[in-house]
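name: query_chain
kind: protein
chains: 1
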Amino acid sequence: WKKKPRDAAAAAVQIAKDWERKTCRADGTETIGGVPADIIVYRVSTRFWIARDTGLILQSVVKEQPNTVTSLYDYAGIHAPL
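structure:
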């Protein structure tokens, strides 16, 4: 694992642009594995369930006709190497 510097101001500007262009939009809330999550739609074909308490992605669904790919993310027991 490597730390990668992130420019928070630049990230905030990009997020604001994506929301302004309606590239991303909020689409309600659900509970995934007992964890409250906000649903975000990215473009038209992708949905993310993002945990309210950690900000981590819990689930994603990508629809690319004729297929739909659903991914569930489990962070239990995940630790950075020493």
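note: The mean pLDDT is 86.
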